[in-house]
Structure formats: structure tokens, C-alpha cells
Amino acid sequence: MGVAVQCRERHRGEQGARETREEGGRQPLPHQMSSSSSSSTAERISDHTHTHTCTHTVACCRHKKTEPEEHARRHKEREGERPRLRRGRHLQIEMSGVVVSLCLLVVFVLLCELSRRILTKLLAPRGLCLSAVYAVELVSTLQLCICNLELRLLGEVGRLQPQFCLSLTYLASVVHGLTFHGALGNPCSTLEYTYRGRLTARSGVLRMVCQFMAASVARTMLQGLWALGLSDLHLRHTLQGFQCISPIHTDTHTSLVLPGPLVTAAAVELAGAFAMQTAFTHTHTMDQRYRVHAIAALTATLTYAGGKMTGAVFNPALALSTQFSCSGHSFLDYCLVYWLAPLLGMMCSVLLFDQMLSGRASPYRPLLANKRK
């Protein structure tokens, strides 16, 4: 009995092991295969989708992170280019305005020179020498005022560099000295000539009338020309109503010595007129080719020294044309600074050096004086 039971149990164990091996080696059914493959495919798709989603998310994050930086970089580049373009355009406009103004100055000088020659040839042979002298005085003062008004426009409205403005001032002074043909163009010089007896009182008064008349006409002529808008500078000045501001103001250095802007400005004009008259008086022995450049260099130097405080005019007729229409001070203030101060400076120079020369009259003569006078 015991042996039989053991045999049956052994037989059952072997049969169970055989069934187990058969189940392990049995192939799955078709529906079981499809379900298992579907599940594995779904797992692979989900893994791929998850990977793609993560990659896309990282890319989006990177794109979102770099997009503001790229936009900011491009904005900075555009903002950096705009001032350069604006400066280049502004410089181009300024240079075109400078070219137009210089061409106008050349045309004015040529027209004035032609007018002087024509008037001299027409009036001198007919016994109207004095009329020719007054006509030359009128035209020369007109040339002086027109050139200074245009140069002032370039300096104030065009905002050119001071070195360039001083170069133009020097060049204009040389041109005036070479083309005036004995004209004085300055009431202070006319009074000095009258004081020394080189001119009669009547001739001196008529010359000064011509000078102040030319100063008034010059500004009216240029305002009409500026209204044409030949350049951007002219158009801008016209839109501003030909407005100008007086250069008289208190300087930080001179205000410590001289009280008030008017006293400072008057002192500057007096000193400048004194220096100019002294130079005119003591350069008469020089060759005219060098004398013209010496006077022009002194004019540019005085303009650099006193231009910021008064405009460095040193000429009552020129001041009437360039300064009296500016806002900031009254007519009496301008008379004190631009008329009385230069007159006192001229008289101080004349009286001082007359005493030094033992009362002898100085052989002063204007630049390129007309020998026929």
C-alpha cells in the first residue's frame, strides 16, 4: 500500500511537471498576440510621445527664453543705429546749408566788387568824385554787414564748430581788406579821420550816414533772401521769425572783476576797439599784402576772446545791423555797449599814442586806400 501510494504521487508530480513545460512552450493564440502587441506598441508610442513632448517642451522653453533676449538685442541695435542715422542726416543738412551760405557770400562779394568798379567808372569822369567815394562807402559797408549777418547765422542756427567759424571770420576779414578800395566801413574810423583833419566835418557826417544806411539795408535785404528758404538754415531761421538773442551776458571770470553784464560787455567792446585802432595805427609801414593778414588775424583773435560776451563787433554800424534787433536788452543798453564803448576805445588809443608820439598825427590809412582819393 505504501509503495503504491508513493508511485501514484510520483506519477502525479511528473505529469504536473510535464503540463507545466507544455504550458511554458505553448504558443499564444492570435487574439492574445494582438492584445499583447497592441499593449507593447501603445507603450512604445506613449514612450515616444512622452519623449517628443519633453523635447518640444524644452525647445519651447528655450525659444521662450531666447526670444526676449533676441528682441532686446535687435531693439538695441535699432536704437543704436537711429542716432547715427540722425546725426548723419543732420550733418548732411548742415553741410548743405554751409555750402549754400558760402556760395551766397561769394556772390555778394562779387556783386559788391562789380558795383564799386561800375560806380567809380561812371561817377569819377563826370567830376563826381565825392559821390563815387560815398557810393563806394555805402557798397563796402553793405558787403561788411551782409557777410557778418550770414556768418552769424551759420554760427548760431547752424551751430558750426568754433574753429570753422573763426576760419571764416579770418577769411572774410582778408576779403574785406582786399576789396574795400579805401572805404572805412566804421563810424569810429570816420571820426578818427575827422579828428585828425583828413576828412572835413561834412564829409565825415556823410560817410557815417552811408554806413548806417547800408547797415539798415543789409538786414532788410538778407531777411528777404532768408525768406526764400534756399537752405534748411534759412528756412529754420525764417520760421523762428528771424529771432536772435543778445550775446550780452555775465561771464563767470569777468563777473568777479566787473559788476554786471552791461559793464562787462562795454569793457570788452572798449578793449577790442582800442586794440583794433592801435593795430590800424601802427601797421601803416607794413606791406599791404601782409598788413591785411595781420589785421584779419587780430580780428579773429578778438572774436575768439570776446565773441561769447558781446559778439566782438567793435563797429557801431555793424552792431546796428547785427545786434540791435536781438532780444534781451533795450536800445539804450545797446547804445552804451556798441556805440559809446567802441568810440571811447578808439579815442583812448588815438590820444594815448598821440601823446607818445609827441602830438604828431599818426599816418594811419585804411586797408588798400584808393590812391586817386
UniProtKB/TrEMBL annotation:
Pfam families xrefs: MIP
InterPro entries with a match to the protein in the record: AQP11/12_channel (IPR051883), Aquaporin-like (IPR023271), MIP (IPR000425)
Region (Disordered): 1-50, 65-84
Membrane topology, record value: Multi-pass membrane protein
GO cellular component: cytoplasm; membrane
Gene encoding the protein: AQP11
Biased composition (Basic and acidic residues): 7-25, 66-83
Designated name of the protein: Aquaporin 11
UniProt GO molecular function: channel activity
Residue spans crossing the bilayer: 91-111, 336-353
PANTHER family noted in UniProt: AQUAPORIN, AQUAPORIN-11
Principal location listed in the UniProt entry: membrane
Protein location: Membrane
Keyword annotations of the record: Membrane, Transmembrane, Transmembrane helix
Organism per entry: Salmo trutta
